[in-house]
Amino acid sequence: MSSAQLRGFLLPVLTTLFLAQFPLPGGSRTIYQPTWESLDSRPIPDWFDDVKFGIFIHWGVFSVPSYGSEWFWWYWQGSKIPSYVNFMSKNYPPGFQYEDFGPQFKAEFFDPLSWANTLAESGAKYVVLTSKHHEGFTLWGSKFSWNWNSVDVGPKRDLVGELAFAIRNKTDLHFGLYHSLFEWFNPLFLSDKNNSFETRDFASTKSLPELYELVLKYHPEILWSDGDGNAPDTYWNSTSFLAWLYNESPVQDTVVTNDRWGNGCMCKHGGFYTCSDRYNPGHLLKHKWENCMTIDKNSWGYRRNALISEMLTIEEIVQQLVETVSCGGNLLMNIGPTADGRIPVIFEERLKQVGQWLKINGEAIYSTKPWRAQNDSMTAGVWYTCKPEEQTVYAIFLNWPSNWELVLGEPKATAGKTEFYLLQVQLIGYENTLKWKSLEGKGMVVNFPKSCYSQLPVPWGWVLKIVKLNEEVEQYRKS
């Protein structure tokens, strides 16, 4: 690292440490210290809880072989899984190295404006792009990448910058970046690992400088960390970096972070919790969380050998979204573009389908809160959200009732004047209010006209809007 680069790396750290001891006078702004106790006290910015749904994009050199998984390099030369070894021996010449895939990652059809439009059509409100996966290849011209980046190799383009510009200028999506802390085969990391992480050459000269570079250059509103390589947060100097991010960075007030900042941090420290890939607990958590999952059941990156049966259906995606939001989480749904820069048509179709569903039913998702009950006690496949300020409860049901009536055990509606005068039940997408009857404090039965089903715009899940329910519209309050 040059002296100029070293100064650029150390300045934010030293500034944060100084401010922690000597806060600026005349202001009430909280200064977060580089400790988990202090950092974990930072409230997650409200915008993140409001948006509910985002798109993850796994894209990199692994999109070239596009076989099996985005972990291709590791499975081929790290774990030496026979199917990966055989794939390479049958299709590539002797001596072929993973680095030789780099020039083939050309992104010649990458149109960031087209991507931005497709992502916006999905109804998502934020996007997270893999700026660097565990292979170490950066999708921007990082000064710390040793030329293993998209500006010097392959596309010869700043892919992060181009997508950030398109997203911010053509949509209202929040732009975020994924960054892998470790790299499978980086010699500096392997040396530190062999030293039981008592040396920090890789963290201090490669990984952390990249993080500062990403924030200062692209101002991401989500910083999605991953891949600790079994190294503790002290090796990564995570608390000092996050203190700078929250105190002094250009996105100090708006940035949202996750919980993957070192071995033992997941589901315990950081911003929102991810806990594990495809995490969907099915119940409330007291901390904001996110379900990051894939349309392709077996991979985060693009696979040429994927089967249609290995893709989630739109019904399965809607179910994931509804269950996640009802339990207080956000859904981050992943797609894997091709090496030449296209969003595969199956992913494009799923994005547009979920967008169609949200265009009709989005009021039951966006800016909602968990209700006192997450799912129904009498009928399976019914999940609840609410908007307390509007005295509104939403019952989202995933199976159309065969007898044209839906029994709800949780809304404790009582008969009488309220039934005929105040409380209203609407089927979103259908213009007329619905008839209902009380089950004497044990729930309610909602009746559907047989003509209404054919009038509904989408068939993948439906929403009852219950207005002025004559019980307190309680909500779960996250800590």
TrEMBL record:
Keyword vocabulary terms for this entry: Glycoprotein, Glycosidase, Hydrolase, Signal
Record has Signal as a keyword: yes
Pfam families: Alpha_L_fucos, Fucosidase_C
EC number: 3.2.1.51
Alpha-L-fucosidase C-terminal domain: residues covered: 374-466
One of the GO biological process terms: glycoside catabolic process
Domain of life: Eukaryota
PROSITE patterns in the cross-refs: ALPHA_L_FUCOSIDASE
Enzyme class per UniProt: hydrolase
Transmembrane segments: none
Site for May be important for catalysis, residues: C292
GO cellular component: lysosome
Name this polypeptide is given: Alpha-L-fucosidase
